[in-house]
Amino acid sequence: MRRIIIAITGASGVIYGIRALQILAEIDDVETHAIITRSAYRTALSEVDLNGEQLRSLADYVHSNDDIGASISSGSFKTEGMLVAPCSIKTLSGIANCFNGELTARAADVCLKERRRVVLMLRETPLHAGHIRLMAEATQNGAIIMPPVPGFYTRPETIDDIVTQSVGRALDLFDFDLDLVKRWTGKSSKQSNNDTSDLPKN
């Protein structure tokens, strides 16, 4: 059984964490441990048609962000790592500075010290120098900063297409090879390998 931690924080984009839990629920040998912050519940009221109970039902286990003694707060509790989706600037700051007063930052710090994968789907724009400095510090600690920036070569038709592709690419980093991800093959859907007639000559 593979375990993975999914943290949903209060930044806009709670759908990313929700979709990750929905996708992982379809994989038999994966056990999900979720942290849903108070701010995430508040953001969810504005962004999705799920109540708190429905959000919690998506994960195998749900831990309170206040419970710094939860199983996932210890390195002896083995996991594949942690996905923070979305990741707020507050959460980024806690992880970058090893400020472990809440479970989200503590669990991420544990994964980093155990050399496990930590992926932060940072949701903020535009960025000032302090944000960029925090991203650099988190990266130096071993985290991967992965803002959910869509690739339009997939020709998405709906918001759901964009969300699923972004989450699928994030889960790629944990070696979950999902059929949901549209992968670049070297040609667009409208162009054969040898058809370059519409490309500029110079």
Describe, in plain words, how this protein is organized in 3D.
This protein has a six-stranded parallel sheet with strand order 3-2-1-4-5-6. It is an alpha/beta fold and 202 residues long. Helix 6 links the parallel strand 5 and strand 6. The protein is built from seven helices and six strands; from the N terminus they run βαβααββααβαβα. Helix 4 packs across helix 5 and helix 4 crosses helix 6. It is globular.
Number of helices: 7
Poorly predicted regions: none
| Gyration radius from CA atoms, angstroms | 18 Å
Distance between the termini: 54 Å
Number of strands: 6
| Alpha-beta classification | alpha/beta
The global form is: globular
Cross-sheet strand order for the largest sheet: 3-2-1-4-5-6
What fraction, in percent, of the residue positions are helical?
25-40%
Largest sheet: 6 strands, parallel
Q: What's the assembly state of these chains? A: single chain
Please indicate the percent range of residues in DSSP E strands (runs of 2 or more): 15-25%
Q: Averaged pLDDT, please?
A: 94
Q: Write the H/E string, N to C.
A: EHEHHEEHHEHEH
Brief digest:
The chain has seven helices and six strands.
What attributes does this structure have?
single chain, 202 residues, alpha/beta, 6-stranded parallel sheet, 7 helices, 6 strands, 16% strand, globular
